[in-house]
Amino acid sequence: MRTNDAQFLVLSALADGPLHGYAVNAAIERTAGERLGQGSLYGALSRLEGKGLVEPDSAGAATARRRPMRLTDAGRAELDRGLRAMSQVFEASAPGRAEYLDRAAASEAGRAYKPLLLDALDIGPTHTVLDLGCGTGADLPAMAAAAAHVIGLDSDPDMAATAAARTGLDVVHGDAHALPFAESTVDRVRTDRVLQHVDDPTVVLAEAMRVLRPGGRLVTGEPDWETLAIDHPRPELATAYTRFVVEKVIRNPTIGRQLHRLAENAGFDVPTVIPVTPTFRDPHTADQIFGFQRTTRRAVDAGYMTPDDGEEWLGALKAGPFLATVVQWVTVAVVPAGGEG
Ligand SMILES: C[S@@+](CC[C@H](N)C(=O)[O-])C[C@H]1O[C@@H](n2cnc3c(N)ncnc32)[C@H](O)[C@@H]1O
């Protein structure tokens, strides 16, 4: 048994109150099915005492050999952290796409910027609004509440069908590179984490320009994956992980920072760009967006990390404390009133 495992078992055994060495080992046997050797037990107790995680229980009757020990506040915090890490094993397999999008929309990160996108759209009661890459349609009802007509569009037929069934709103199966709408028929267009995936964002911008009326508005919420910053005791592993995501996972990884320029080049005015920085403090929540286990396995297979580094990378992320951020750019682009569209 590894030293840290023995210490963790001792901390767990003391969770319900002070015990002396023999009773600690009996408690360990009840939960783990085996006792620690005398050397491991007293070694673990003395190391934990040295770290201030356990201390003699002054209230208990002590003799030299039967000295009851108890958790300190720091020991209880360490035990909680270990238990959290054990229960937060990262997902090994990918969730369904619809489930993934539902989770992302409901996450703290999603809630941090989606209202901002809605505000930036500035939807009026006579407007027709087009949500390009609507996914499961999570945001269609909020837009529909403010508009005359909302249309979702997605290139994945399952997504389009799910969005239509869930919302009862108009949803089209189609490609954002070739919109099935006449020119100057739409007042608002939105993308939320879609342009990062498309073949050619400039074609999609040109299509948005074509279908929007003069004075119409495109609002995009798109990430910049080069800003993915994950704290780790070995920062070089975080750099390797981000490089892998940028180079191998996302088709247009830095689209968020480029959109102000690409939109101007497409003929839009760009009055506003807002960087939003969702911050993740809980590895389990972050994993639901990032899929650490799967992505790390791919990074190892692609040679961005050694297998040992991959283990070390995941181990520290699971154990916490955890911190990750990625910048999500909200860009507002307006068709000039004179009408280039
Ligand atoms: C990350 S999801 C975001 C979904 C939704 N916007 C949301 O906020 O929940 C990206 C969506 O874009 C769609 N998509 C990707 N490429 C597309 C394209 N060329 N045309 C239309 N939809 C596309 C995908 O099928 C997927 O549903």
Tell me what you see in this structure:
It comes from Phytomonospora endophytica. Residues 130-219 form the Methyltransferase type domain. Keywords: Methyltransferase, Transferase, Ubiquinone. Residues 10-80 form the Transcription regulator PadR N-terminal domain. One of its GO terms (molecular function) is S-adenosylmethionine-dependent methyltransferase activity. It is a single chain. With 341 residues, the protein is α/β, with parallel strands linked by helices. The chain folds into two domains: 3-87, Arc Repressor Mutant, subunit A; 97-334, Vaccinia Virus protein VP39 (Rossmann fold, 3-Layer(aba) Sandwich). Helices cover 47% and strands 20% of the residues. It is built from 14 helices and ten strands. The strands form two sheets. Strands 3, 4, 5, 6, 7, 8, 9 and 10 form an eight-stranded mixed sheet that branches. Helix 1 packs across helix 2, helix 1 crosses helix 3 and helix 13 (292-301) runs antiparallel to helix 14 (307-319). The protein is elongated, with a radius of gyration of 27 Å. It starts with a helix and ends in a 7-residue tail after the last strand. 38% of the residues are buried. The model has no long low-confidence stretch (mean pLDDT 89). It binds S-adenosylmethionine (SAM).
